[in-house]
Design a protein that fits this description.
Elements: H1 2-24, H2 42-70, E1 75-82, E2 85-93, E3 97-107, E4 118-130, E5 137-147, E6 152-161, H3 167-184, H4 188-197, E7 220-221, H5 235-259, H6 266-286, H7 296-303
Antiparallel strand pairs: 1-2, 2-3, 3-4, 4-5, 5-6, 6-7
Length: 310
Amino acid sequence: MRNLIRRLVTTITLVLMLTGIQSLIPAVAEWDENYGLENLSVEQAAYANRLLAFMSEMDAKYFDRVKILNGDLEIETRIISNEFGDRHIDVTRGPVVEKIGRSISITKKTKRDFQSETVFSRRYSFDIHPETPLVGFLHAVVNFHYDVDGTSAVGGFLGILPAATGEEDLADLKQTMDEMYEKYNIDSIYHRKLLCEGYDDDDPLAVDNRYRRRPACVGGSFFSSPEKPMMSVTENNFSFMLESFDRFVDTYMNIIEMRKDDPYTAEDLAAQDAMRRNWLEDQLFSDVYTTNVTAYEGWSFSNLPPEVKF
């Protein structure tokens, strides 16, 4: 009987010790890929589910292409969660594509006045840094949300910071987007102006244009501006953003495959160094979201270059 009691006391003590230790270990954030779907109507849910399927398709398609280029694929995953939202980030690194970051963000609570209160939201992005300076840095985003006031929005950003990218390759990217603009009857002049010039200094969304990114004027910015809100969710606008994202990234990856073994000069490397520093400065001082909304440990992991020189 004594031995039984002694063993019982020992077991209880061990359980209490382990419980105490576990309470000191930070909980691993959980990722709910379907978060917010329950808030949507049947029609809204149909678009949302198409978006979720599209994101899975893009993950598989482009991480597979990176694996072929790099010869291997080791993915680092981080899930960042706080009261304002959740973020799921996958990053892989290698000799040809030095770094690719894929980020999916969900907004749960607004942090700044310019944000919409949403019932469902996703921000999906690729940030790709190739080793060769002959191919610039890709920043590609699809932003999608349904709001509590009954409105909706789909938009994003498709652009390349060129470094030493050749005019022929920039023309290929521009032609890809020209085809998309024409197919869906979307105003290319307005969206390329927003891409290249950003917001005016007196605009409430402007932060510090001295450090703003310097993209080539080949893609488009599809976020809101004082002139226009983001596009609403219609079949035309939704399909335009998703197909444009895929086509633009596909063309960009083709360029990496073509240029990965081409020789380059010290001047080309200097152009890449300047571009990477410009992107870091944009994210620290100019981008309205990274300076006001998103957590540093999230955006720095997903989109910053593997190396920045000063």
